[in-house]
């Protein structure tokens, strides 16, 4: 029987792919934490006034908006989002988040089938040697 896991996002070190950049992420769940493949949940924070780079992925991902408002671009469509919104992004759809109209951070959870489906997993792994770091380990 697998053991349960308790994670609080506030206890995790944020990772920014661009040092001092507008976007940071934290791995909340994934195989590295659980010891087996489980759904990956990533918490992303985009600073007020920021915008993420666009990208498309080979696998479906799901956005759940936690805090703030902003625009999520899906190919050429713009969706204004607020807390509680869910967006399912199919493979191949170019998408990015625009928070340039706000001063407050925009926080979302991104759900993936596996942690390896999320490119940020590899960026954290390369920078830290692990994809999750608790603040007391930093």
Helix content: 10-25%
Which overall shape is indicated by the principal axes computed on the Cα atoms?
A: globular
Q: Count of DSSP E strands?
A: 8
**What's the end-to-end separation, in Å?**
31 Å
Q: What share of the residues does DSSP label as strand, in percent?
A: 25-35%
Identify low-pLDDT runs. none
Number of domains: 1
Gross CATH architecture: Sandwich
Mean pLDDT: 91
Measured on Cα atoms, how large is the radius of gyration? 15 Å
Question: What structural category do the secondary elements indicate?
Answer: mainly beta
What's the SSE pattern?
A: EHEEEEEEEH
CATH topology tier name: Jelly Rolls
Structure description:
The chain has 138 residues and is mainly β. The protein has one domain (12-128): Sandwich (Jelly Rolls). It is 10% helix and 33% strand. It has helices at 31-34, 119-128; strands spanning 23-29, 40-46, 61-67, 70-74, 77-81, 86-89, 95-98, 106-112. It has a five-stranded antiparallel beta sheet with strand order 1-2-8-3-6. Strands 5-4-7 form a three-stranded antiparallel beta sheet, with no helix packed on it. It is globular. The mean pLDDT is 91.
Produce the secondary structure layout:
Elements: E1 23-29, H1 31-34, E2 40-46, E3 61-67, E4 70-74, E5 77-81, E6 86-89, E7 95-98, E8 106-112, H2 119-128
Antiparallel strand pairs: 1-2, 2-8, 3-6, 3-8, 4-5, 4-7
What's this model, at a glance?
By secondary structure, the chain is mainly beta. Helix content is 10%, strand content 33%.
